[in-house]
Amino acid sequence: xxxxxxxxxxxxxxxxxxxxxxxxxxxxxxxxxxxxxxxxxxxxxxxxxxxxxxxxxxxxxxxxxxxxxxxxxxxxxxxxxxxxxxxxxxxxxxxxxxxxxxxxxxxxxxxxxx
Amino acid sequence: xxxxxxxxxxxxxxxxxxxxxxxxxxxxxxxxxxxxxxxxxxxxxxxxxxxxxxxxxxxxxxxxxxxxxxxxxxxxxxxxxxxxxxxxxxxxxxxxxxxxxxxxxxxxxxxx
Lengths: 114, 112
Prior knowledge:
A: 114 residues; B: mainly beta
């Protein structure tokens, strides 16, 4: 069974631009979560989707948004990029409908904002 | 609060046991996890424990949970150089969600 895949793996953008990151969960998994990892703030929860609905949201500005498609694939979008958005963005998927239990992470997308 | 705390560094000799500690603040946590991150990689799920358990063993890994002290530990027996990585503990507090609160991570260095 293939693991969680994320595309692209690396991205360089300029301040003010926008970016879309993609995540394909493990086959059969319907829950997808996104996290931001930075040296200063560590791993922080962005949002979580289940059956195309946002189930939970972290404390990030409205520039960060996401969505989930009917095939469970998810995208996150960051508009008006700032230097501080440079980070590793990780996606995780889970098969347990009610939350908790095992979550599997993808390799991440490393975003650099210049 | 949502703080999950870990010590930053741990250095052990190959073949010895490693013990990585974690403290959390919310007694309502449901699941507690240990993840491993190698350089340039994502997070690898090592093991997890439900909050009504106090111990779980999986091959070289032993997880101990002390709910009274809100303390979680991961013991790696016979530590190998391939175990060198950053280890994160995480808690899942809210039912019906996959949201995880992560610790700061402990960098484990294994020397020969």
